[in-house]
């Protein structure tokens, strides 16, 4: 009733029959269901406008819907037809404006500014960080590592419940951009290897310390560091088109992302060795069977099924979810940071080795031939 009296006072001049008819058409165009209470109000005002006060017998006790409608109409008593018409028009006008403001904005409008290699969006209490170099299979440049760290830092403080990392295009990510190793002046190799190790330590450290539920949505093949850090995520959903490949030995490099600790724990020593030492590439279903992936979805329905699931999860009590994540992670944090430091110090050495330099040169010369 309070809402109705508010509407009554809003327009000084009365609504015309034409306004009323146009409001009736507007109701049919509403995208959002206004709910039963408002629908009953609209019904009652419509009846009062077109027929005057309710004077039909009250429907029987089991005719629940018609009884509710009758009650709503009857509650308007002797409200004059003109006032009912005005109230109907005002109510529809309010519903139409809230309906249009609640419509989903296109992704371009929701995109957070300031990132060149990522698209970061927030919706439905989910912050999505999407790696956005599809032409280069989302290979991770130095700038991209830094932007992912910045996006995670911002997401840890925003009001989102869940954070998602995913890739744009046909790949999730092809791992470290091998061009990161290029154009290093001869005398600067050791310094650059040290800087690389510091960057990697900080990057992996962000995933170790991240306080909210972190979900990887693996839209396609994943290579190298984009695979190893999966052991630090809470959920890993994969398209059945995805593969998981850590060809470190072929590249003269050693495992990172805490995988030397998390992979044996997740899949057992023997399976971890096959991946991390011998570079065995796993299909999504194999990775799921070995516990690295939470669930695999057919590629044709992947996005729809995963986002429906995540939207439902994002409605869970936020603080409880975050506290649970932190209790699980806190048990291991110290160990994970120690593993991260050890892996990076080994890698720093590997990057200076002939085996690594030759592997990178061979990738780059293959590129030159193409
Ligand atoms: C500082 C922190 C260091 C952390 C260390 C992490 C270790 C790792 O992550 S190791 C993993 C390194 N990644 C690789 O070895 C993958 C190399 N790329 C490939 O083998 C192939 O490109 C591919 C299998 C991913 C795709 O092959 P496909 O034939 O389908 O496409 P391409 O024509 O090769 O690729 C398109 C385009 O993208 C460039 N590209 C793809 N991945 C990388 C990469 N990782 N680094 C640099 N560039 C990459 C590729 O060269 C093509 O570029 P052009 O179009 O300019 O030729």
From TrEMBL:
Pathway: Lipid metabolism; fatty acid beta-oxidation
Keywords for this protein: Acetylation, Isomerase, Mitochondrion, Peroxisome, Phosphoprotein, Transit peptide
Catalytic activity: a (3Z)-enoyl-CoA = a 4-saturated (2E)-enoyl-CoA; (3E)-tetradecenoyl-CoA = (2E)-tetradecenoyl-CoA; a (3E)-enoyl-CoA = a 4-saturated (2E)-enoyl-CoA; (3E)-nonenoyl-CoA = (2E)-nonenoyl-CoA
EC number: 5.3.3.8
Keyword match Ion transport: no
Molecular function, one GO term: fatty-acyl-CoA binding
Domain ACB: 16-101
SUPFAM superfamilies: Acyl-CoA binding protein, ClpP/crotonase
Gene Ontology cellular-component terms listed: mitochondrion; peroxisomal matrix
Locations listed in the record: Mitochondrion; Peroxisome matrix
InterPro entries the record matches: Acyl-CoA-binding_protein, Acyl-CoA-binding_sf, ClpP/crotonase-like_dom_sf, ECH/Chromodomain_protein, Enoyl-CoA_hydra/iso, Enoyl-CoA_hydra_C, FERM/acyl-CoA-bd_prot_sf
Pfam family, one: ACBP
Signal peptide: none
Function text: Able to isomerize both 3-cis and 3-trans double bonds into the 2-trans form in a range of enoyl-CoA species. Has a preference for 3-trans substrates.
Protein name, UniProt field: Enoyl-CoA delta isomerase 2
Organism listed in the record: Canis lupus dingo
Gene name of the encoded protein: ECI2
